[in-house]
Design goal:
The protein is an alpha+beta fold and about 190 residues long. It has a single domain (about 1-170), classed as Alpha-Beta Plaits, CATH 3.30.70.141. Helix content is about 50%, strand content about 15%. A four-stranded antiparallel β-sheet has the order 2-3-1-4, with helices on both faces. It is globular, with a radius of gyration of 17 Å. The chain starts with a strand and ends with a helix. The structure holds inosine-5'-diphosphate (IDP) and magnesium ion. Inosine-5'-diphosphate (IDP) binds near residues 58, 84, 88, 147 and 155.
Length: about 190
């Protein structure tokens, strides 16, 4: 049940000086930092982290959002999805991100809950996206501003494995004991 998960403090979080604040939340939860680096990724790397097939989902969501808000578009679902994905790639490569591997019991679920819903406008207060951002993803799509939601967190066991292997070499992942580990895990 002890898992590792990847988080990224995205360019908006780094540029807003939120790195310490965000890492502090995870540290206080008892999540152990076992890998950490600052990287300014290029487009090629970004396309591995956010594969182009995400565009399909973005297209569907964006078209639904456009209808919901009574807006018009001449673009097809496919074009909308590809544009939103392009905006995401531009956003994630605009400046450095901080990549962190966290370890803990059910770390993937714990960290996702702390991160909050994808769209900050519906993320609960107390979550990172709920406390530090307010835009919606449909706003991001329509304005072409990239999904600025402060953090990334692996969504599943498979994603976490793939993403950690993409961002970190095995020797960049560390093993050590935290002083409070007995109290946070009973071991
Ligand atoms: P997640 O980060 O909560 O797992 P995903 O659906 O995996 O959400 O999307 C990855 C990232 O793409 C989001 O964190 C956000 O930055 C961006 N994104 C997701 N949906 C949209 C959208 O509808 N419009 C613009 N950007 C989006
Ligand atoms: Mg995701």
């Amino acid at each position: 049940m002890i898992e590792k998960t990847l988080i990224l403090i995205k360019p908006d979080g780094v540029q807003r000086g939120l790195v310490g604040e965000i890492l502090g939340r995870f540290e206080r939860k008892g999540m152990k930092i076992v890998g950490m680096k600052m990287v300014h990724i290029n487009r090629e790397f970004a396309e591995e982290h956010y594969p182009k097939d995400m565009a399909k989902l973005f297209g569907k969501k964006t078209l639904e959002g456009i209808k919901e808000f009574g807006l018009n578009t001449a673009k097809s679902e496919k074009e909308l999805g590809e544009k939103t994905w392009e905006d995401l790639i531009n956003f994630i490569t605009e400046s450095p991100v901080v990549a962190v591997v966290l370890e803990g019991v059910h770390a993937i679920k714990n960290v996702r809950i702390m991160t909050g819903s994808t769209s900050p406008h519906e993320a609960s207060p107390g979550t990172i996206r709920g406390d530090y951002a307010h835009v919606s993803m449909i706003y991001s799509s329509v304005t072409g501003t990239g999904g600025r939601n402060v953090v990334h967190a692996s969504g599943s066991v498979e994603d976490a494995k793939r993403e950690i292997a993409l961002w970190f070499k095995p020797e960049e992942i560390h093993e050590y004991k935290r002083a409070d580990e007995f109290h946070t895990t009973g071991r």
